[in-house]
Design brief:
mainly alpha, 300 residues
Amino acid sequence: MLPLLIFLTFAFAGAGLYVLTSPTATQRRVNALAPELASGWTVTALRLAQPLAGLSTPEGAWEGSPLRIQFAQAGLRHPDARILYYATRTVLPLLLSVLVYAYLRNFSAVGSLPQLFYVLCGALAGVYLPNVLLRWHIARRKREIVEAFPDASDLMLVCVDAGLGLDAAFTRVAEEIRVRSRALADELHLTNLELRAGATRETSLRHLAVRTGVAELSQFASMLVQADKFGTDVADSLRVFSDELRHKRQMRAEEAAAKVPTKLLFPLVLFIFPSIIMVIMGPAAIRVVRTLLPLINGPG
């Protein structure tokens, strides 16, 4: 009876997987008309992930959600990125809990209550792991933008001093800074596209600050908006702002250099000092032991 139940379980699971991954009539027609657009493993992955994502997708509008802002700050602009994210949050807790249970069952001899605790810890880690990875990616992208933005500000000042308008300066800087930072170049390019589409400069700059989440870009947007409102010369404002950015970068470098001795203290104490002491004191200790040991034991 048990082999029959196992066979039926796998058979129904295979049939359900086939029905879930098989294209519908509309999709087959799209594949026939444009096979290069509708083929690939990504389509199958999205079809599998969509029902799983529905289990953990919260209610509410996606457009104004904080997660959408985090996705923009991480550079994830594909419309199906949130489907894969929520599908991962659904599958990963189950997968990690099953793996922890299998490991404890086969390679450990803990009791049932500790097993339950470890399984719950694995499920909890699976819930928070996508958020941790997303925040790590956001932090890395912000650091890249912060490091490249002073150079972009200097380039923009050069372009404005050469006679280019601010919109043309955005285009030129986005082209030149791509070698230094692709993320910053993409954000400036999107800002330029918004300006070409008819959005106001204030709206486009505010969107740039929100998409990046970098304080320097927020100050940059506020500076340009105030320059437009009060009629201040943009070149003078950019010159003062670029000097401030260079000063901040110098201060960050000095702060990082001041932290180096403190960071080197623990490796020195744990790894280098014991080795030095062994090299210096080792031969002397051996000679002392060889000299004093016969005297302690006495003649004999």
